[in-house]
Amino acid sequence: MTGYRLFATAGVMLLAMSSAALADRAAADRCAAGLSPASKALYQASAPQVLGGETPKDALTANARSMVMGGTLSRADARPAAEAAAPCLMQLK
What we know:
- By secondary structure, the chain is mainly alpha-helical.
- It has one domain (about 1-90).
- It has four helices and no strands.
- α3 packs antiparallel against α4 (about 75-90).
- The protein starts with a helix and ends with a helix.
């Protein structure tokens, strides 16, 4: 009976942890919904990296640089777009 309780407790804890992670992703996505198109693009490009363990700053820097070099984001718009997307990405942590 003790093994069953341990297994059941572990299962409940895993469910609680996964629902908390989904809630953070949902909140971050809601936050991103109100962003400008440039900020949304940065958020969408950076979110998988942040979920994979990268810091929001590192993900945003790499993606903004790539988008500027690729011509999809102007240099002048990169910083403001990244600053606007950062709080949403922070919710993924």
